[in-house]
Amino acid sequence: MSETLEEVQLLESIPGVGTKLATAIVSEIGDASQFRHPKQLVAYAGIDPSVISSGKFVATQNKITKRGSKRLRRAMYLAVTCGLRGELNPRLREYYDRKKSEGKPHKVAVIACANKLLHHVYAMLKKGKPYQFLMVFKSLT
Q: pTM to 2 decimals?
């Protein structure tokens, strides 16, 4: 039944995302129009960085909040690791390599990629366009 959903077919266009991951992501997000901004979706997934500050003190090493859906967080983590494995998703690999060159640890870079990929998922679901189209469209602008 999930293979007949248009949203699942859209998410399957992401390299490294199969039917099971696409179904898990769509079922956890539900209707994407309930989020006004992709940052709200990122916060719903619980992969947004927590901000720790008090007075003049601002923490430099922040963890993710983990306040949202653990199933969506896990699905995004798996989507990123599958996309990075075997160079399936070159756009994601480029972003991962940039984060690693900034000195970020592996898991921090993967969560940053998951954050970025969730922004793409939001755009795909709102516009109804597959991943490849968004990739070409972004390079033209």
A: 0.88
